[in-house]
Amino acid sequence: MANTVQSKKRARQNEKRAAINKARRSRIRTYLRKVEEAIASGDKEAAAAALRAAQPELMRGVTKGVFHKNTAARKISRFSARVKSLG
Length: 87
Hints:
mainly alpha
C-alpha cells in the first residue's frame, strides 16, 4: 500500500495508464483478428484491406509504448507474407 503523497499519486497515475494501455492493446488485437479472419476466409482483397487498416494501429502502439518495435515489424511481416500467398 502506498504511504506517501507522491506514491499515492503514482499509484493513481499507473492505474489510469494501465487502463489506457489495455484499451489500446485490445483495439490493436481486434484489428489483427480482422486480418486473421480475412486470411482464413481466403479473400485476398479483404485481407489486404484489413492489413492496411491494421498497420498504422500497430505502429501507433509502438510509439505509445504498448508493443516493441520488432514485435510490430514481425507481425506485419508475417501477415504480409500470408496475404501475399493467398490465391
